[in-house]
Structure formats: structure tokens, C-alpha cells
């Protein structure tokens, strides 16, 4: 490791306490940085060739036939985007201005280059007495939340079948972000440009706290909102690459927890400003909470946005906020029309790949990003053709994977995947 990198790593370790401690955030420091320039082989199957079938793996056919059983190529793509989210957590402890941001966060040879770092501003304001009692590092209004990266390696572009733009967003870290998460009432989500909602349809609405983090600027430091930062960078990249008659361009937005919710909002906004069908926009989310109501889900579907949600059924975060009112007949306990007046009726958005781990009272462990990646990785191993031959004697604890309405049992080791 170079002296500069060594100094940067020591500096980030000394400032770790400035971030709100979470299991996901703590685990990112364990990402290994190798002395050589070789890539960190986290997922050996990550080099699967997509080629002309890339739209299929980006959800063009709603992942029909790829989730049950889980297609090994899709599995490797899910794990690859999970690595980008893990990098977003790691980058919280690094210098966002570093040109080697992905390399320092554990992705040295991804083929992508970070073009912009993203910050989110909380709309919540602490009272004066509370602001004085809370450390400034936990009560700051604006925080680094992710990055935009574009694939520029020719061999990786050929493997992917297109030039991929990734927007990676971390989960909750700061105290004010936790407070925003608790603002669970629904608020209007106006599209840009504005499109009137037909009278017979429900108005698109999203969770108030998520919308605030997505749209709030920080005028005191001349920082635009997260929405405007993403808009500007996507427009710039599309204008730069689309006019060169090069490969197709896709936009993939990935995130965990809070980042998963913001990813859906970003996809909705990007499609609105670029136009439906202009580019393939896909969301790959891990452990994401509910984002909006049925009207918002309808708008997402009509715009052609594809959302793949990886959900651990033991993760309580994926079952909040609010509650879901289905289209089935009312059970008589409370009329649906009355529930809709509470402002807490949400809708699940996108297609789900569900995994179920061992039941435990440890909520944080069920929500941990690395645990999600372990379960997906194991599911991909079980689904691959050679898995039956390589599978040894049954050991460890048993868990269930629930996909496309069916439930399958798999055997999982107790340990997390080894990062070489």
C-alpha cells in the first residue's frame, strides 16, 4: 500500500466515530485492500457474459424465468451491484475527492470510474437544546451518501453488452437520517415535468422522510438537493456518451435500506426528465422499506422502470412503514376506504427475490447487507447446475428461499463468505 493510501486509511479509521454506528457501517471497514493491483475476488462468478441478453438481466421481461430458480448470471449481477453498495458504505470513511475511491473501498478493477459523489440533506431540524447536547458529527444536516460511476473499461463494456451508469446509495448513518426515517406519513410526489393524475386514480404519494432527504437542499453551503445532483450528473453523462454512437447506455440504481428507498425515487425522477423509454432504468435494492402508495407504484410501472427487490423475510425493515391494503375482499375488521384515510397505506413496488434466514431476535443481523449478499450467493450456488455435484454432506442451519410465490429449503453454512 502506498504511503498516501496508508495515511488515508489511518485517517478514516481515526474518524470512524463521527458516523452513527450501525452493523452495516462497522462491517465495511473490514474490506481488504490488497498490495497488488489484482482485483479482489469476492464473487468468482461475477465475470458472467451478458452480451446481447443484457436487457433480459436488467428486467426487460420482468426477470421471467430467472428468479425460480435463480439464474447464476443474474445472481452474479446482483452480487456485483451489492459490492457497489458495500463500497458506498466504505466510502463514508474515505476521502470522497479521492480519484481512487472504488479501489480504496475494495473494488480495484471494477472497470468503473466515479464521476460524482453525492450528498443528501435532512429536512429535519433539531431544537436548540437538542442540538447542543448531540455531537455535531451526528447532527449535521448534509452527509455523503453515495456516488455515480460509469463503466469505461472496453472489456467490461463488451461483457455487459452496454455502457452501464451506476448510482450507488448507502443506508442510514446519521442521527438526522434516522429521524427522517420515522416520518412515515405519505406526501405528494410531484413528477418533473408535472403530469396531472386522472381523477379516477389515486395520487402518487411517497414517504415524507424519504422525500425530504431526496429533495432538500442546503443553501447555507450552496449544496443542491440529492435529486438535483443526480439529475445534473445523469444529464451530463447521457449527453457525453449518447452522442458518440457508442454502445447502448443503461442506468442502474442500487442501494440498501434507506438507499434502496432513495433509489426508487431517483429512478422515478430520472425517467421523468429523460422520457419514458429513452434509457433502460433499473433498480436493484437490498433490504428496502416501502416507499409509496399504489398511485406511485402505478407511475413506476407505466414509466417502464424495473425494480428488483432482494428481501429477507426475517427483516422487519422490509415490512415498514405503514401497511398494505390488497385488492382482495375486505375482512370486515376495517373498511379499505377508511384505512386509506389514515395516510399510512403503502404498496410494495417491483419484483421480489425473497430469502429467509434463521429466525433471530437480532434485527440488525437480519438487515445487514453482508448477510443479504451471503444469502443471495448461497442461493446462486444451489441453483447452478454443478451445485449438486459439488454439494457435500448437509451441515449448518437450514433456511428457506421464497421466490415467485413458491418456497424452497436450502442448507446454509453459519459463516459469512470469505473475502480473499
UniProtKB/TrEMBL annotation:
Belongs to the AB hydrolase superfamily. Lipase family. Keywords: Chloroplast, Hydrolase, Lipid degradation, Lipid metabolism, Plastid, Transit peptide. Its main location: plastid. It is found in: Plastid, Chloroplast. Gene3D superfamilies: alpha/beta hydrolase. InterPro entries: AB_hydrolase_fold, Fungal_lipase-type. PANTHER family: PHOSPHOLIPASE A(1) DAD1, CHLOROPLASTIC (PTHR31403:SF54), PHOSPHOLIPASE A1-IBETA2, CHLOROPLASTIC (PTHR31403). The keyword Lipid metabolism applies. This is Fungal lipase-type domain-containing protein. It holds the Pfam family Lipase_3. Residues 166-323 form the Fungal lipase-type domain.
Amino acid at each position: 500500500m502506498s504511503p498516501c493510501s496508508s495515511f488515508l486509511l489511518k485517517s478514516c479509521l481515526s474518524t470512524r466515530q463521527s458516523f452513527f454506528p450501525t452493523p452495516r457501517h462497522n462491517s465495511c471497514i473490514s474490506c481488504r485492500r490488497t498490495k497488488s493491483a489484482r482485483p479482489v475476488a469476492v464473487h468468482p462468478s461475477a465475470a458472467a457474459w451478458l452480451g446481447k441478453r443484457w436487457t433480459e438481466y436488467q428486467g426487460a421481461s420482468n426477470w421471467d424465468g430467472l428468479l425460480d430458480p435463480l439464474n447464476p448470471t443474474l445472481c452474479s449481477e446482483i452480487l456485483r451491484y451489492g459490492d457497489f453498495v458495500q463500497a458506498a458504505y466504505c466510502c463514508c470513511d474515505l476521502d470522497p475527492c479521492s480519484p481512487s475511491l472504488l479501489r480504496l473501498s475494495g473494488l480495484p478493477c471494477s472497470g468503473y470510474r466515479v464521476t460524482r459523489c453525492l450528498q443528501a440533506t435532512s429536512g429535519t431540524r433539531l431544537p436548540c437544546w437538542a442540538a447542543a447536547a448531540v455531537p455535531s458529527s451526528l447532527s449535521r444536516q448534509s452527509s455523503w451518501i453515495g456516488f455515480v460511476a460509469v463503466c469505461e473499461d472496453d472489456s467490461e463494456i463488451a461483457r455487459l453488452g452496454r455502457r452501464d451508469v451506476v448510482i450507488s446509495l448507502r443506508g442510514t448513518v446519521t442521527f438526522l437520517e434516522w429521524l427522517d426515517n420515522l416520518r412515515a406519513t405519505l406526501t405528494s410526489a410531484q413528477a418533473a415535468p408535472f403530469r396531472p393524475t386522472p381523477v379516477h386514480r389515486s395520487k402518487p404519494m411517497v414517504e415524507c422522510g424519504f422525500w425530504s432527504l431526496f429533495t432538500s437542499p442546503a443553501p447555507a453551503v450552496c449544496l443542491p438537493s440529492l435529486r438535483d445532483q443526480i439529475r445534473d450528473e445523469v444529464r451530463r453523462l447521457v449527453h457525453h456518451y449518447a452522442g458518440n454512437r457508442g454502445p447502448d447506455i443503461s442506468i442502474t440504481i442500487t442501494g440498501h435500506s434507506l438507499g434502496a428507498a432513495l433509489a426508487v425515487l431517483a429512478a422515478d425522477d430520472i425517467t421523468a426528465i429523460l422520457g419514458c423509454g429513452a434509457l433502460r432504468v433499473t433498480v436493484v435494492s437490498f433490504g428496502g422499506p416501502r416507499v409509496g402508495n399504489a398511485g406511485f407504484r402505478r407511475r413506476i410501472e407505466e414509466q417502464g422502470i424495473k425494480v428488483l427487490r432482494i428481501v429477507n423475510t426475517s427483516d422487519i425493515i422490509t415490512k415498514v412503514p405503514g401497511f398494505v391494503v390488497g385488492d382482495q375482499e375486505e375482512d370486515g375488521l376495517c373498511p379499505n376506504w377508511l384505512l386509506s384515510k389514515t395516510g399510512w397505506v403503502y404498496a410494495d413496488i417491483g419484483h421480489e427475490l425473497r430469502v429467509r434466514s434463521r429466525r433471530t431476535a437480532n434485527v440488525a443481523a437480519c438487515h445487514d447487507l453482508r448477510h443479504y449478499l451471503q444469502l443471495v450467493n448461497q442461493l446462486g450456488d444451489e441453483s447452478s447446475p454443478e451445485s449438486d455435484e459439488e454439494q457435500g454432506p448437509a451441515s449448518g442451519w437450514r433456511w428457506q428461499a421464497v421466490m415467485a410465490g413458491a418456497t424452497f429449503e436450502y442448507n446454509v453454512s453459519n459463516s459469512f463468505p470469505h473475502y480473499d
